[in-house]
Amino acid sequence: MRNVAIVAAGITKFGVREASWKDLVQEAGKAVFDDCPNLDRKDIDSLFVGAAQPERWVYQTHVAPLVAELLGIDVRRVIARTEIACASGQAAIRYAWLSIATGLSDVALVLGVEKMNTKFMPLSQTCMVNVGNREFDGPNGFTAPPFFAMVAQRHMHNYGTTKEQLALVRVKNAKYGAMNPYAQFQKEVSVEKVLGSRMISPPLTLLDCSAMTDGAAAVILASEEKAKELTDTPVWILGGAQSVLHSHTVNQFGELSEWLGLRKAAKEFYSLTGLSPDKIDFAEVHDCFTISEIIEYEELGFCKKGEGGKFIEEGDSYIGGKIAVNPGGGLLSNGHPLGATGIRQAWEVVMQFRGEVPKDRYVDGAKVAMTHNLSGMAQLHHIMGYSTEKPKEIKFGR
Amino acid sequence: MRNVAIVAAGITKFGVREASWKDLVQEAGKAVFDDCPNLDRKDIDSLFVGAAQPERWVYQTHVAPLVAELLGIDVRRVIARTEIACASGQAAIRYAWLSIATGLSDVALVLGVEKMNTKFMPLSQTCMVNVGNREFDGPNGFTAPPFFAMVAQRHMHNYGTTKEQLALVRVKNAKYGAMNPYAQFQKEVSVEKVLGSRMISPPLTLLDCSAMTDGAAAVILASEEKAKELTDTPVWILGGAQSVLHSHTVNQFGELSEWLGLRKAAKEFYSLTGLSPDKIDFAEVHDCFTISEIIEYEELGFCKKGEGGKFIEEGDSYIGGKIAVNPGGGLLSNGHPLGATGIRQAWEVVMQFRGEVPKDRYVDGAKVAMTHNLSGMAQLHHIMGYSTEKPKEIKFGR
Amino acid sequence: MRTIKLPDSVELPTLLDPFDQQEPSGPDATGIYDFYRNLAEGDLTTTKCKDCGKLNFPPVIVCPNCLSDNLEWVRIPEVGELYAFSVMALGVPAIIDGYAPFVVAIARFGNYPDEGIQISGIIFDSKYEELKIGDKVKWEIVEIQGPGEKKRYWYCFRKI
Amino acid sequence: MRTIKLPDSVELPTLLDPFDQQEPSGPDATGIYDFYRNLAEGDLTTTKCKDCGKLNFPPVIVCPNCLSDNLEWVRIPEVGELYAFSVMALGVPAIIDGYAPFVVAIARFGNYPDEGIQISGIIFDSKYEELKIGDKVKWEIVEIQGPGEKKRYWYCFRKI
Ligand SMILES: [Zn+2]
Ligand SMILES: [Zn+2]
Hints:
The complex is a heterotetramer, with 2 copies of chain A and 2 copies of chain C.
Chain A: E1 4-11, H1 21-34, E2 46-50, H2 54-57, H3 63-70, E3 79-83, H4 88-102, E4 107-114, H5 121-126, H6 144-159, H7 163-177, H8 191-196, E5 199-201, E6 204-205, E7 215-223, H9 224-230, E8 235-244, H10 260-273, E9 282-284, H11 290-299, H12 308-313, E10 324-325, H13 330-334, H14 338-354, E11 368-375, E12 380-387
Parallel strand pairs in A: 2-3, 2-4, 9-10, 9-11
Antiparallel strand pairs in A: 1-7, 1-8, 4-7, 5-6, 8-12, 11-12
Helix pairs in contact in A: 4-14, 7-11
Chain C: E1 2-5, H1 33-40, E2 45-49, E3 55-56, E4 71-75, E5 79-88, E6 102-111, E7 115-123, E8 136-145, E9 151-159
Parallel strand pairs in C: 1-8
Antiparallel strand pairs in C: 2-3, 2-4, 5-6, 5-8, 6-7, 8-9
The complex binds zinc ion (2 copies).
């Protein structure tokens, strides 16, 4: 199997953008190609698009060839769009990795994009009802905010986690986001500000939640041979695991504060890559809500189960703490354009490894990173690993 | 790289079904598991779903975990839904193949499904406008029937192809479809019947067109080691190529009668697999319209360019002719539930190789097959190859 | 019985309507139509596998545990326990947006997970502040009026 | 000028409206708003790359040929040639379904492909039987009225 590296990364400003879906694609495409001056676009043989719901948000499907046309790419090996809701971007990277690892593709563009803001926000928000089971949980208004609010309620109930601890996650991520010029929100906030912001779904306030965001991000992946021609700073893919807990509907969730799917995904990830939390310099994790990051500390093994609140309280997830979590500002600061988020995380890894981020959010000397996405109501968890050093051998299976 | 085989296949009846999207998933799931009695469902580690537009047709997204829940599958490696419009099913098979080839997955379920019929057919048909560029070609009513009608017009203009020749494609596929109990249309038709049926988009009549169809199909893929445990009649994947002609919008199509993307895809496919048309026992190709199959004869190299009409006229694409094309009845007889079609073709390959089809549509002793899908307005072409014999080595790249 | 009135002016419901079409036959038919028929008759029910005994929710046509299609309809116990709850204010399907904000909850009925289920539901008649984990709730039927003369049925929770 | 009237009763247009929102600013803004502004002023235009000279259609904000964003708006020649045509009867976007059946065509303007474009368009004023490949056609502007007071613009073809 061939080693695969990210050789270039590009991103648009995230936010409520005065830009169409196509504008975002073109911006991210230009950014990633500008990041890869040695590349002849003719060498791109494959295109992997991450997109969640263009069918509803922008009334467009069959989006992969549209991206190809907009960016002048002449695909001759693999092309498709990947959807797994909030993790669509990471899943697209995974497929590009597999395709290059086998030799089917040599150089691939992976582009994630979502346009979620329109003048009709109630309608755009309606489009989130169908991420869960729209026939059974949809009519009950079961979208992410009330669901993650219940997760928070159960975690507080079972482990004594406090609203202040939740707020501290936002405080940390806002601090780093304030140094990220591409983030939707670039302002530091205090615990008081988080607690005092508008109540969305109690106990979660507005600042406990990530936003509806427009944005796109892109990376170029290449085989080892091609990577050498294209960059001096390849970011090697270490592989990844992925897990679903046999759940889509509320009935299958069991106890909301236990994310057994993530626990299993982490175990598979560590087993396949030989990594453990102490060998990881930083993690970009899916903080769609503050409570998510707290549970992720626990299930990813950064701390004991139930001690996620304490972990942030003691500053252990800051840069310089036990493990730097979301030095890019996370979804809370960047916003969460579904198809782009997983690729934005990969972009952050590339920038960190190159040292091309502001000093105060730079994880000095970072060489190993993990990225995590959940999708939907945490029904699924997805993890990947990256390193500055080329892995000797990648373990794909048992 | 590991060899990969299809070890089981299952299908629902295709048609205007009195069944919901979820019903179709459960039917196809039960069928494929019933076809694989040696399988412990716990061994399925990955799930690949092919689906084009559940967001619009059934108001549901994040469909992969829903399929997992409905079928009691506990994914621990790879899961996502693949969309590339009409070729979503084949693209899902491709990803499963890559994942098993690398060793990331061992046993994978690939399920394709589409529910296109509702009581509000104008609305369901509206959902096809966004397969092309909905902003520029959509407002001009540019869906498949008028587009393929123009393709036919140009082919007739350039090569003298006749309406009767188009009709003969339907006659052949209806003959085989009449022997396929899962097909939407199971009735033989005459040339006169085709020519006299309701005009849809001239020169194409109703019987020149495939239908809006509900249906699902599923296959189980396994590594060589696992395949041996699960079946005595594995269907080996020979690999495939895929090509896009830098086109999404009408402006990039060039001359409509030349499908350069398919010509290139075929060249890549033959080069990667070492096959040529004379080594292929039968082909399941994407006859979304009669004209499509005629152009496919040409671009796949079954006959010279421009002689596709003659090819069917002389019976060369019948079983017993130069190459059997669509012995399963094609999309014209089976109907075309977008996400399921590519997997229905794989199901047909399995049934043919096992000899589990009626005698008069059986390609006696078939050992090698190719499947082809186009997507959208023929913007993309996708090909895969299958064999009863395990390939010594699969060429993934150059 | 609580009533939700959908606007008549939405002419094209399937793209916007969060409720299933709930038809026994035709292209919108659902294999679990009995669930809706039972709702119309006042019962919240689900399927139980006669082969392996597994209780499923949502109801299914094939048992995900053993793949049997030998299923029976069973009534969900009327009284359950509030497991978790919050408030839904944003992102409500646009055509029922006028009913927000409301309490969204998860309640457990029967002996979850082995012989019971955990389901979501709206609580219209209590405020968030009036509820606590462990409260007894019962399900009750909701009539969905419209579009036009159409009548459909759903359920919600009420604190008792 | 031909007029298409959209129904006012569709309250939620973005899911059903095949026409772009065509806004110069705000969350529905499009980087190619000048295309729509030019339509409103009577001109069918597209972008041409000032760096590599490539003419694109649809218009873009980044040249797919050389990635330059140094683009200019150019007018599409008013008269072109009918390249292919058929009839659209089924699958018309539901809110303009009342206008079907109509002729759908592809016409070439300028010297395609190097210095011209090939675009789709509706022909309202000729029947299928009255047309043949090679006919001269011109583009003309269409006003899209509604929903509400909203006015937008599009184009169609006419045989000359
Ligand atoms: Zn059972
Ligand atoms: Zn240029």
